[in-house]
Write a structure and sequence with these properties.
- It catalyses: DNA(n) + a 2'-deoxyribonucleoside 5'-triphosphate = DNA(n+1) + diphosphate.
- One of its GO terms (molecular function) is DNA-directed DNA polymerase activity.
- Its EC number is 2.7.7.7.
- The chain is an alpha/beta fold and 901 residues long.
- It has 35 helices and 26 strands.
- It has a 6-stranded mixed β-sheet with strand order 3-2-1-4-5-6, sandwiched between helices.
- Helix 27 crosses helix 34 (804-841).
- The chain is globular.
Length: 901
């Protein structure tokens, strides 16, 4: 007996088919994680999954997979699908990732040994329709057209994963001239090239459809085969066995014994924590944001919102509460309304929440002088504890209004970052759901009682932003408590309170101060790079004798390089042979062709011009550039710079260094000072490994790479050639980043065996480094994380992955994170020390920029010697590396370029 289910709309997806289309639609070289895992197929599949879930709103969903190529069809016909090329390993490695995504989304997936995904789909389709359900099938396999009925529609991708056909019975018949139930008969006659099923020679869809229309179905055609005239009839009779075999093979099996039924496929709310873990690992930040924006939080994910009823204070009541000595130690949360960008902005409002569920909203533009003074005093009181989410822009907005903010005891964005540094987003709404199982909403639409003194009317649309701000403040207060425990569990409490939070104030001042630029020089530089681009373009045209080539078009470059010039082929991609920078550089080494020289010059100059154009747009009215520093982007703890990114100003080429020359000392100051750590990461390596040889190199004061080269190549230091030094330098830094022998061979353009020999010699002389690198991976695999000298953790679950590529990528991160992360912590400590010493000394000189291991300061007249001594002292004593001295290099000049050393 068939059991009829409540309303069912079942969505069935062919996982293999859709992922394979995504793999070839999205360039594999553009989609990979920092561990080297290719992700184009899983990205495209997940993107399409989100779209179809949104558009179809199914009640039930499942994804079917092929288990292997060994199916009953292959047993009957050994040439079945024989024309298909071997599945690329870059694709196969992504199938387990797709299943991880589906598991996180709590979407069931199934495959049956000996059968194909379409057979699973056919079986579930039959079950669902028999129970009165509606079915939507999403697949790129045309065999599924036979399933289409008035209850079953089909979504068929026709271009990548973005353009699709929606096939109902009318659409199938319009395109193929037969109803869906006859499609398999037509395919048996015509053949299917993708399955390597040959059809009747000379018989196309129109002829096959005519026969089926005349005789009813394939059985009717076979029964009247002798009546069919002409060459087509002869060919049909000659290939009748092939046709009948095709029909047996293309019929989908709809009665499989499956481990689940339709009733098991009901959509469930996803595992939000697991979604974060999986999407963080895949580095799908944008896709995750799309997921959360597309679908509302499932009801069973949250326990409700935030109740404001009966707890909203007006401004006088709030100020009285804040001034109450009995509440001096009470923690309050703040949400500042306003904006700040590029050194300018303003704060317009303030939402406050405190214990007992109270909340208030203050219009900063409508305060009396006395009220503003009272609020300013509380905001500036370092003894009044406050918590915020993403404090720096709010601090900046208050500052432009003349309001100081002190006493910040937690920033929930920074706290969440320390708990999970690999997370791609620290949006408050998401963190509230994730850590509190709540939503940023009020429990009830009306949250006020007009008869109660001091209450706001929150029932009007005009007050929705007021209500939202207070809800956010309440959420921040509760979130801060939960995250404090989690930060403690991960050993990050000291980092939060002693390093990251103090750094917020320092960075805020640096952002407001900005760095001076010579606008005329910047404009002239852009014009110069534009002229050099045009010259490089003309040189490229002259080298090939034509000007009809777009140097930015990979397709046109392929035609020139591998067609016209017949150059050695580069790596094959979906769109042809790659023309990326590394490939072109390798080609130029091999051929020294003038077209390649001009093309590479054009690309380099183009990048420099784009950088300069961005800087021109970023100059503020004060003729300074104000970057924004981000503390929660790099998992290693490094600061990031944006709008514009001043950490990305090139320094490796003379042309690139010209850009630094436009950053100049400002009015009223004497010079710029650049101070950076010399070989900080190698010094950390020496300290952490305890290797006597490396420690001796630093203590001796000799050139590190010459010293190491002498040991590795068994020659006197003075006999170390530039080539030897270059090889040793590349290897020393490479080892700290988990560089393999293969990677070293590519970097140095030597054989893998030579690179391995070089590494063996290195480790023979510096055994402490070898032992340290081994031990750190073993320890990280046991604990699940690595840690810097200050205890900053980076969790690496892929260390236990069954996927070799992901596991090896995680091992490289395990080697790199403690060293690069410790370097990041040390420069932050140095910034704290320099800032404090400058303020204590009363100097007018000030910090402007932080770029990885470098600090840039603006020096006031008459302060150079004192500031240099101060900077050397504070940077040199930022941390104790035992027997390894910290070496600080300092330069001074009119511009950033002149201050280089």
């Amino acid at each position: 007996m068939v059991v009829r289910l409540p309303r069912v709309k079942l969505l069935l997806l062919d996982g293999h088919s859709l992922a394979y289309r995504a793999f070839f639609a999205l360039p594999v070289e553009n989609f990979s994680t920092s561990t080297g895992q290719n992700t184009n197929a899983v990205y495209g599949f997940t993107s399409m999954l989100i779209n179809v879930l949104r558009d179809e709103a199914p009640t039930h969903v499942a994804v079917a997979f092929d288990v292997s190529r060994q199916t009953f069809r292959l047993q009957e016909y050994s040439e079945y699908k024989a024309g298909r090329s071997k599945t690329p390993s870059e694709f196969s490695s992504q199938l387990p990732l797709m299943r991880e995504v589906l598991d996180a989304l709590r979407i069931r997936h199934v495959g049956v040994e000996g059968y194909e995904a379409d057979d699973v789909i056919a079986t579930l389709t039959r079950q669902a329709t028999a129970a009165g359900g509606e079915v939507v099938v999403c697949t790129g396999d045309r065999d599924a057209f036979q399933l289409v009925t008035d209850k079953v529609s089909l979504i068929y991708p026709v271009r990548g994963v973005s353009e699709v056909w929606r096939m109902d019975p009318a659409a199938v018949e319009e395109k193929y001239l037969v109803p869906p139930e006859r499609y398999s008969d037509l395919a048996a006659l015509v053949g299917e090239s993708s399955d390597n099923l040959p059809g009747v020679p000379g018989v196309g869809p129109k002829t096959a459809a005519k026969w089926l229309g005349q005789y009813g179905d394939l059985q009717g055609v076979v029964a009247h085969v002798d009546e069919i005239k002409g060459k087509a009839g002869e060919n049909l009779r000659a290939h009748l066995e092939d046709v009948l075999r095709n029909r047996r093979l293309n019929r989908l099996v709809d009665d499989l014994a499956l481990p689940l039924g339709v009733e098991d496929l009901e959509r469930a709310s996803w595992d939000r924590e697991e979604v974060h873990r999986v999407f963080d690992g895949l580095e799908f930040r944008v896709l995750r944001d799309r997921l959360f924006q597309t679908f509302e939080v499932e009801a069973d994910e949250v326990e409700g919102g935030f109740d404001l009823e009966g707890h909203v204070l007006d401004t006088p009541a709030l100020l009285a509460r804040l001034a109450d000595p009995a509440r001096a130690a009470t923690v309050h949360s703040l949400v500042v309304g306003g904006h700040f960008r590029g050194g300018v902005g303003d704060a317009s409002s303030l939402a406050v929440a405190g214990d007992g569920g109270v909340a208030a909203h203050v219009d900063l533009t409508a305060l009396t002088p006395d009220d503003e003074a009272a609020l300013a005093a509380w905001l500036a009181d370092p003894a009044a504890p406050k918590v915020l989410h993403d404090v720096k822009p709010q601090l900046q907005a208050l500052s432009t209004r003349g309001l100081a903010l002190r006493g910040v005891t937690s920033d929930t964005a920074l706290a969440a970052y320390l708990v999970r540094p690999d997370q791609r987003s620290y949006d408050l709404e998401d963190l509230v759901v994730r850590h509190l199982s709540r939503e940023l909403r009020t429990e009830s639409a009306g949250a006020s009682d007009q008869g109660q003194q001091g209450m706001l009317d929150l029932e009007t649309d005009d007050d929705s932003s007021v209500r939202d701000a207070m809800v956010r403040a309440r959420a921040v207060l509760e979130l801060a408590d939960v995250l404090a425990e989690k930060v403690e569990e991960t050993g990050g409490t000291g980092l939060l309170h002693d390093l990251e939070l103090p750094l917020v104030d320092i960075l805020a001042v640096m952002e407001r101060t900005g760095v001076g630029v010579d606008e005329d020089a910047l404009t002239a530089l852009e014009a110069d790079f534009a002229a050099k681009m045009r010259q490089a373009q003309q040189d490229a045209y002259d080298a090939i004798g034509r000007e009809d080539v777009n140097l930015g078009s990979p397709k046109q470059l392929q035609e020139v390089l591998f067609g016209q010039l017949d150059m050695p082929k580069t790596k094959r991609t979906k769109t042809g042979y790659t023309t990326d920078a590394d490939a072109l550089a390798d080609l130029f080494v091999k051929t020294e062709h003038p077209f390649l020289e001009a093309l590479l010059r054009h690309r380099d100059t183009s990048r420099l011009r784009v950088t300069v154009e961005g800087l021109i747009k970023s100059v503020a009215p004060d003729t300074r550039i104000h970057t924004t520093y981000l503390q929660t982007i790099a998992a290693t703890g490094r600061l990031s710079s944006t709008d514009p990114n001043l950490q990305n100003v090139p320094i490796r080429t003379e042309e690139g260094r010209r850009i630094r020359d436009v950053f100049v000392v400002g009015d009223g100051f004497e010079s710029l000072m650049s101070a950076d750590y010399s070989q900080i990461e190698m010094r950390i390596m020496a300290h952490l490994s305890g290797d006597d040889g490396l420690i001796e190199a630093f203590r001796s004061g000799e050139d590190l790479h010459r010293f190491v080269g002498a040991r590795v190549f068994s020659v006197a230091p003075e006999d170390v050639t530039l080539e030897m030094r270059s090889k040793v330098k590349a290897m020393s830094y490479g080892l700290a980043y988990g560089l393999s022998a293969f990677g070293l061979s590519k970097q140095l353009t030597i054989t893998t065996s030579e690179a391995q020999g070089l590494m063996d010699e290195y480790f023979a002389r510096f055994g402490g480094v070898r032992d340290y690198l081994r031990e750190i991976v073993v320890e990280a695999r046991a604990t699940g994380y690595t840690a810097t000298m200050l205890g900053r953790r980076r969790y690496l679950p892929d260390l236990l992955s069954d996927n070799r590529q992901r596991r090896e990528g995680a091992e490289r991160m395990a080697l790199n994170a403690p060293i690069q992360g410790s370097a990041a912590d040390i420069i932050k400590l140095a910034m704290k020390g320099v800032d404090s010493a400058l303020r204590e000394s009363g100097a007018r000189s000030r910090m402007l920029l932080q770029v990885h291991d470098e600090l840039v300061l603006e020096v006031a007249p008459g302060e150079r010697e004192d500031v240099e001594a101060l900077v050397r002292r504070e940077m040199g004593s930022a941390i104790d590396l035992g027997d390894v001295p910290l070496d600080v290099s300092v330069g001074v000049g009119r511009s950033w370029h002149d201050a280089a050393h």
